[in-house]
Task: inverse folding
């Protein structure tokens, strides 16, 4: 590969020709990305506190199966994704409270959901781009109807989180003491899993079923590397998620590459920088306080 080939590949990845004309056309997509970044940053904080990273991946597989079935039978893909996510979240919430039980259930559900999704996509005879979009995201094509539905679901998740924020934080940090003090730990766990299922279904529109962890896990994980208080963790998690999502959409506008590589790369870069900052602090003897 010579320099001309390298420049050609670079031009495929980053193409800013006619960028000023394209940007207004994707205003709805940018707004949707910003809203989903807020949801991902908020939910991701509790995902990290409750050690549910593996659960996010499992729910994403069932969400993928639901979306693929919806694509096959010709109904709304977002609705199918939502049904699959919430069903998986309810199963995990009802059957596995403890991490060991939960992980074993997820290990059973993941291949089942992935297999169903592949089966439904194999039977689908429509455009290949529709199949690929379920795996890699396609938010640049969001229309007004989808945007309104997405905003409604996002507002629902955010309001529900704000209502249960304090008891959910208590139950996430120390479930045994929270239960002894009368906090409905099991009900909160099931309720949070439903909110997580909705968030996964929404996030799949941006990064697809394969890379949903980049939106729901990585920003919160990066924030926990550098923040010194729970409030700062939440704030940074939201900022990182919005930055990666909106930045990824803006970088992807002019190119022909799916949006997910841009979002995941930005998200990983943010985590890497935060990791280096945390390491530098440790070398200087600065310890960060644990989240309580």
Result:
């Amino acid at each position: 590969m010579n320099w001309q080939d390298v420049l050609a590949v670079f031009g495929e990845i980053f193409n800013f020709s006619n960028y000023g004309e394209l940007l207004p056309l994707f205003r709805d997509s940018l707004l949707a990305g910003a809203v989903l970044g807020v949801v991902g940053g908020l939910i991701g904080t509790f995902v990290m506190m409750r050690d549910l990273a593996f659960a996010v991946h499992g729910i994403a597989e069932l969400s993928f199966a639901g979306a693929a079935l919806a694509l096959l039978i010709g109904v709304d893909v977002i609705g199918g994704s939502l049904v699959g996510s919430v069903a998986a979240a309810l199963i995990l919430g009802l059957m596995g409270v403890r991490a060991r039980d939960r992980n074993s259930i997820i290990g059973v559900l993941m291949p089942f959901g992935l297999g169903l999704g592949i089966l439904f996509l194999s039977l689908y005879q429509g455009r290949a781009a529709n199949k690929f979009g379920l795996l890699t995201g396609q938010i640049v094509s969001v229309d007004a109807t989808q945007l309104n539905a997405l905003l409604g679901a996002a507002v629902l998740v955010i309001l529900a989180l704000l209502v249960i924020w304090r008891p959910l934080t208590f139950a996430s940090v120390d479930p045994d003491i929270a239960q002894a003090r009368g906090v409905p730990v099991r009900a909160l766990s099931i309720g949070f899993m439903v909110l997580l299922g909705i968030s996964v279904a929404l996030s799949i529109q941006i990064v697809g079923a394969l890379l949903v962890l980049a939106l729901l896990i990585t920003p919160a994980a990066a924030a926990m590397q550098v923040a010194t208080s729970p409030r700062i963790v939440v704030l940074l998690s939201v900022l990182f998620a919005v930055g990666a999502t909106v930045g990824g959409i803006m970088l992807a506008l002019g190119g022909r590459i799916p949006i997910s590589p841009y979002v995941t790369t930005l998200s990983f870069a943010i985590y890497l920088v935060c990791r280096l900052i945390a390491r530098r602090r440790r070398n200087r003897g600065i310890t960060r306080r644990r989240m309580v």
